[in-house]
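Work Package 4 report. The design task specified in the project plan requires that, given a folded chain encoded as structure tokens, an amino acid be chosen for each position. We show below one input record used in the internal validation round.
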């Protein structure tokens, strides 16, 4: 049943990708009041009905496996279904945003109310799609709890996370790896898993460093005979490329998360701390480039109404003029901050896991853990926090080695 459910999720991903591309390319669904989504809605409706039947069967299959205490089959099924569901939910989010825009544009008289109602409907339907994908993970948790493989806190926390968007995937990875560890079939991370996130970050940061150098040279001395503008524009795409790899198609972060969980369960504190330090320090040039690009965009949007009105917006509109300029600034600043923050989160995977390991070994106080958890989610301080966490990990390792 897990394979059947996974296969049908692939079909669903293809369908929503078709809807998204049809709207994005404006063929055949145009966002100008003439878009007709009847055909894709019918197809997705049929897909959804069949999916619900498969989902109910999958839940029954998970219950059967729980009664047999077949933890091995449960963890295999949970791993398969959760990972296959990721492309569907990612594409579904894109298609949902486009559909809401399309329908909202056809409802100008009521300020796009139909678009919001459709959004609410799709959120509910998407949640119904999520539920069966958590059946096997929940089964793993029940079997592990009955066999004293996990404690009540781990059981309760992961049970809740299995029914929430996005974090259900992370919780699924944790539960699968714990199950494999208890079964004795856990495998250490391979070289690709160990270095994938660091490799993605370092390649992006290397290109960003070259961009920073070229930009500094060009705007300071304007050298002749060198195609600097072309190179600067080309390398300026690095931030967008990294955003795509770290956020839009989060393969590297998911692999890194699984790797971090394996390091944690295998008590490999050295690998955790080393990976945390390499990823955080390696990200610095990329964040510098991203900061410069975001600052330029925000400044350009801020000056746009001033340039168009030749300053009249400030001189003649008074407070309203400053509010208008502030709105343009906000329009550039908010997406820039959100985008950068979403890129920051994957780089904290190893640091937060190291922190959890230190807390588990009582090498740090709860106050230290809470403080550095917050610092890991703030720009700049996350780097300082990672160095402090790595230092504590080194102290723990030294103490473990010297203790007989």
């Amino acid at each position: 049943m897990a394979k059947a459910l996974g296969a049908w999720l692939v079909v669903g991903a293809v369908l929503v990708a078709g809807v998204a591309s049809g709207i994005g390319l404006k063929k055949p669904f145009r966002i100008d009041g003439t878009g007709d989504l009847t055909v894709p809605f019918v197809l997705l409706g049929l897909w959804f009905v069949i999916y619900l039947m498969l989902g109910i069967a999958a839940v029954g299959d998970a219950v059967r496996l729980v009664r047999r205490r077949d933890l091995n089959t449960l963890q295999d099924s949970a791993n398969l279904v959760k990972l296959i569901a990721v492309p569907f939910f990612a594409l579904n989010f894109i298609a949902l945003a486009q559909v809401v825009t399309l329908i909202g544009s056809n409802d100008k008289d009521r300020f796009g109310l139909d678009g919001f109602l459709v959004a609410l409907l799709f959120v509910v339907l998407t949640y119904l799609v999520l539920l069966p994908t958590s059946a096997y993970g929940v089964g793993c948790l029940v079997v592990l709890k009955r066999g004293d493989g996990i404690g009540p806190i781990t059981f309760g926390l992961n049970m809740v996370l299995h029914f929430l968007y996005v974090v259900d995937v992370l919780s699924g990875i944790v539960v699968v790896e714990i199950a494999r560890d208890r079964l004795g079939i856990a495998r250490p991370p391979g070289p690709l898993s160990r270095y994938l996130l660091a490799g993605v970050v370092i390649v992006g940061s290397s290109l960003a460093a070259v961009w920073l150098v070229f930009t500094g040279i060009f705007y300071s001395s304007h050298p002749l005979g060198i195609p600097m503008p072309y190179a600067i524009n080309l390398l300026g795409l690095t931030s967008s490329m990294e955003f795509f790899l770290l956020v839009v198609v989060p393969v590297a972060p998911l692999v890194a998360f699984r790797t971090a969980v394996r390091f944690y369960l295998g008590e490999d504190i050295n690998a955790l701390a080393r990976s945390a330090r390499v990823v955080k320090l390696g990200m610095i040039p990329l964040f510098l480039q991203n900061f410069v690009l975001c600052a330029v965009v925000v400044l350009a949007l801020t000056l746009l109404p001033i340039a168009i009105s030749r300053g009249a917006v400030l001189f003649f509109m008074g407070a309203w003029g400053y509010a208008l300029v502030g709105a343009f600034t906000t329009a550039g600043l908010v997406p820039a901050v959100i985008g950068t923050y979403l890129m920051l989160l994957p780089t904290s995977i190893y640091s937060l896991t190291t922190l959890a390991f230190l807390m588990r070994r009582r090498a740090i106080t709860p106050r230290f853990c809470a403080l550095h958890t917050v610092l890991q989610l703030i720009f700049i301080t996350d780097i300082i926090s990672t160095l402090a966490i790595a230092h504590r990990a080194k102290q723990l390792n030294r103490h473990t080695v010297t203790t007989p």
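Residues 191-402 form one domain. Validation will be extended to a larger panel in the next phase.
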